[in-house]
């Protein structure tokens, strides 16, 4: 029996590189995914964190009465 040879990646397609959005945090700057006491992914804590971020963004986006004249 023989082992399979070296595997080749598919050739890159022009224009199909990684999309980098300006102003978006880089992967290195993101916080670590929440974990529970056993080290498993804590999805409930992750959803709560996203909910807090969304609520904070909405709060900042709401214009204050009398702020702009």
Descriptive keywords:
1 helix, single chain, 0% strand, 69 residues, mainly alpha
Give a quick rundown of the structure.
The chain has 69 residues and is mainly α.
Task: Describe this protein's structure.
With 69 residues, the chain is mostly helical. It is built from 1 helix and no strands. The protein is flat.
- The share of residues in helices is 25-40%
- Give the strand content: under 5%
- Please mark out the parts with pLDDT under 50 across 5 or more consecutive residues, or reply none: none
What string gives the helices and strands in order? Answer: H
Largest sheet: none
What does the average pLDDT come to?
Answer: 76
Q: How many angstroms does the end-to-end distance come to?
A: 81 Å
Class derived from helix and strand content: mainly alpha
Number of strands: 0
Count every helix, treating DSSP H or I runs of 4 or more residues as helices.
Answer: 1
- Kindly provide the radius of gyration, computed on alpha-carbon positions and rounded to a whole number of angstroms: 22 Å
Shape: flat
Spell out the blueprint of helices and strands.
Elements: H1 43-61
